User: What shape does this take?
Amino acid sequence: MITCYTCHQGRPVPLNTPVLPNTEFPLEEKATKQLPAPAEILAKYINALGGEQKLRAVTSRVVTATQNIPNGPGGVNPVPATTERYQKAPNLMLNVYHAAKFTSSNGFDGKRAWAQGGNGRVTEPPSLEQIRTARAAEILEPLQLGATYTRMTVEGIEKINGREAYLLVGYPKEIFRSVCTSTRKRACCCERQRRFQRRLETAHTRWITTTIATPAAA
Assistant: This one.
């Protein structure tokens, strides 16, 4: 309500610009959600899979799924495919991918990784892919994540298929061990480690997000 006091405020000559009362309210600080430790998320993940005892009782596994697989030069053109994965303890694995126009496969024979393209040609992946494939072939891989990814951080909460999940990013120890193999290479170690870390973030973040993420509300 505007009255005489609004402008005069006890003065015979009113103010040119009336001083209105302060109606601003202090902003409420949003409470930040405390993120769990990586070990806690891994424990929930193993529990969601049935627990350590049941996981160790599994000696073979067959998984069917649909996914986009790399295609074309450099694998930059993903195509939808039906995937079949066959595993046998401790570390034998065969993946078969059925796309609309070709079938490809890859696997691990217990010692070496291999890949067969749609043209039938069989090749051996490079050393970094050898490490990743050997790790994925372990049928007890969920129980070994804490030892494999020696450096883990919880980056926050993201949504996967409409559900909140913790984003847990891991860095495999093999990558950092291969950055410098002798003291003579230490001069270039920092730059090479940065390049390896960028490759890690590209190659592993998506995998560990979809594999390790547990419901944030759990």
